[in-house]
Structure prediction request, 332 residues.
Amino acid sequence: MEIEDNILVEECLGGNLRKFQVLVERYKKPMYFYALGMVGNSDDAYDLSQEAFIKAYRSLKRYDSRFQFKSWLFTILSNLCKNALRSAGIRKQYMVSDKALETAPADMESNPESAYQAQQVKQAVWDALATLDSEAREIIILKHFQDMPYKEIAEVLGIPVGSVMSRLHYARLKLKKALAGVIE
Amino acid sequence: MKCQEAIIYISGKLDGELTPEQERQLDLHLQTCAVCRKEYDDLLKLKEVTSNMRFTDLPDRYWAGYWNDIYNRLERGLGWIFLSIGAIILLGFGAWELFDKFLLETSMPMLLRFGVGVGIIGVIILLVSILRERLFARKHERYEEVER
Prediction:
């Protein structure tokens, strides 16, 4: 059975760094994928996700266990990504390539025409994500690619649950507009 | 239910986040409003498209070294703290010795002591200025880590 995050955090605070490794192993991929969606290139996403873990460990005493540890981690990463996007330090913003996204195997295993179409849509979605402002992109990634419930999204973004629905709706409209002609 | 409210609820319905009552009201509205129905169908399609996609994973070799990188950086952080404390002690001692054995030493030429003294004051002013600038920038960071 998986040990709960809060228990692991308490053991980390007691000086057991190896317990922090368990948390890192648990969330490294979702964190990386989130950062990838935000900054658009894997090098920066990898570095930012690691930086978020380091920051989290150093501020572990300030973590409030009333909130989910995962949400807290994502909040730290979210701020790091926004800072990175604002600074000139980011190596490349969104990659021109669509290689950061892949479609479900079923789409690719069908006939060549469908596979080609899936490839086109994938490229279009990637390009559309790049055109969104960071606020819209962030909520789209959290819901569409991380499948977070509204409560968790609210914790990550520090907004009421009720606002998640409306913010997500307007972000979806922006994405739909950016994909005009691709999704019919 | 009015269109303005229905539009927002559409996202909730797509994500299964509405209460049964909210969903019932929205469904009633969607049966009678073609505009909202179209919006719902479009966003449903959008969700279907993205649900077939995921971010590409990295090769295993990247994940194999992931924790070690973090561990090393955390360990190095501790090293920097000790190094900084040591440097502060040494600099403090050096400053005291300089003041005591050089600046107050009357056998040294006055002009030399004056030149060194002015130089030190210049370095202190520059350091304070840089430190203040950095602290100011940090204080006014818009996306500084949120604490909860």
